[in-house]
Design goal:
- The chain has about 290 residues and is mostly helical.
- It has two domains: about 130 residues, Tetratricopeptide repeat domain (Serine Threonine Protein Phosphatase 5, Tetratricopeptide repeat, Alpha Horseshoe); about 90 residues.
- It contains 13 helices and no strands.
- The protein is rod-shaped and about 100 Å long.
């Protein structure tokens, strides 16, 4: 019994010693880390009250592309420079630091702020373009929400309107084309989805809106044919009292398609829809006569 107690007591003592050793190591690591931190020149710089030094070092970090180090320093300087002539040039550095750190949402905000609040600055056009460009970089995959794509499109168009002679206008137009194509593809997939789930009326509206919103689309024949095809399916599934009206609408869509795209690869399929629609109308007419 006594032997057992001594064994347990010895075991507990060993555990305690082991625990104390671990705690000592832990505190040693903390002390060493704190010592290094205290000696770190960057940490000393952050704690410094010398704003000129901080600004000089911030620019050095910027030039070295060490943006994460530059940002806190510029933020401290900006807080003091607000309302002075030095505020705008420092803010310009700060916006570019956000861009360099790939914080595109923040960069877009700051470039836009510069463009709107300092319209007479030499950097005004550049900042307006960069604000739009950052939204372009935020534009997501076509399957996701396209809010940033729309923001980029509007901002880039505003840049062109405000600075039609700027050297970046050609690039801005290229970006606008890419953004519009993405939005068009998004809209096309949505209309196709309506067709695939047999919501043909919604599909017709969706495809029509594409032609309205993107009149210069490269897929005008496909979109116009899709309206025809959706109309045909809509008429086919309609109740008897609506079939005549809707097959006649299908014929109208056919003539609109064939007048514009007689040589399209979809022309043969369009012809089959036309012939069947005529046959359905004749069948309805015969049934009504009987």
């Amino acid at each position: 019994m006594q032997s057992s107690f001594n064994s347990q007591n010895k075991f507990s003592t060993l555990e305690l010693l082991h625990l104390m050793k671990k705690i000592s190591v832990y505190f040693f690591i903390i002390i060493v880390a704190f010592s290094f931190s205290a000696c770190d020149p960057y940490q000393k710089l952050l704690k410094s009250s010398d704003l000129n030094l901080k600004l000089t070092k911030a620019k050095e970090f910027y030039n070295k592309e060490e943006y994460e180090k530059a940002i806190p320093l510029f933020e401290e300087v900006l807080a003091t420079f607000r309302g002075t002539k030095n505020f705008e040039p420092v803010y310009y550095y700060y916006a570019w630091c956000q861009y360099g750190s790939e914080n595109y949402l923040m960069a877009a905000y700051h470039f836009k702020y510069l463009a709107e609040n300092f319209p007479n600055s030499d950097h005004s056009a550049e900042c307006e373009y960069m604000g739009a460009y950052c939204y372009n970089l935020l534009s997501p995959d076509v399957n996701l929400d396209q809010e940033d794509t729309k923001k980029a499109l509007d901002a880039m168009q505003l840049f062109i309107n405000n600075h039609p002679e700027d050297s970046r206008v050609e690039k801005a137009n290229e970006i606008i084309t890419q953004l519009r194509e993405k939005l068009e593809l998004k809209a096309t997939r949505a209309a196709e989805l309506y067709y695939n789930i047999t919501s043909y009326k919604a599909a017709i509206i969706g495809f029509k809106n594409i032609l309205k919103d993107y009149p210069d689309t490269k897929k005008a024949d496909y979109i116009t044919f899709s309206i025809l095809k959706s109309s045909y399916e809509y008429a086919t599934q309609s109740i008897p009292t609506k079939k005549e009206e809707r097959f006649n609408e299908t014929l109208t869509y056919y003539f609109n398609f064939i007048d514009k795209f007689a040589t399209s690869k979809y022309a043969k399929d369009a012809q089959r829809i036309y012939e069947d629609s005529k046959a359905q109308l004749n069948k309805l007419k015969n049934n009504n006569n009987n």
